[in-house]
Amino acid sequence: MNSKEKKLSFMLKVKDLIEPVVARLETIDSKISQGKVLRPEYYRNEDLKKMFGLSNNTIIKYRQTGILPYTKLGDIFLYNSGKIDKILRSNES
Predict the structure, then answer these.
(1) Interhelix angle for 45-52 vs 56-64, to 10°?
(2) For 35, left (φ over 0), alpha (ψ -120 to 50), or beta?
(3) Which of 65, 61, 60, 68 lies closest to 88, judged by CA?
(4) What's the DSSP call for residue 75?
(5) How open is the CA angle 48-53-55, to the nearest 5 degrees?
């Protein structure tokens, strides 16, 4: 195989690898364009800490006082993202 054939073969392999990525990006772009928010249905403690800068103690206090509705699955606390959005909207000034 000569140099030109090697380059062509390499380019075709790269194209085959990139095509699924491009298709996925197009899907994501179309969802964003349609106004669909790409967020999980449920957040976990780590998500709340990263997104809002909350500490573990604050999350526990909010759960215990009923400020933060949750679902418990085994030892994992899950927070419905729709309910979190509703709480945030209701607390807008």
Answers:
(1) 110
(2) left
(3) 68
(4) T
(5) 80
- Under DSSP, is residue 1 helix (H, G, I), strand (E, B) or coil? coil
Label residue 38 by pLDDT band (50, 70, 90): low
The structure tokens 């790269």 sit at 14
Alpha carbon 39 to its chain centroid, in Å, reads: 5
pTM over 0.85: no
CA 79 to chain centre: 14
Long-range contacts at 15-19 (CB < 8 A, ≥ 24 apart): none
Mean pLDDT of the 66-84 span: 95
Pairing of the two strands 76-80 and 71-73: antiparallel
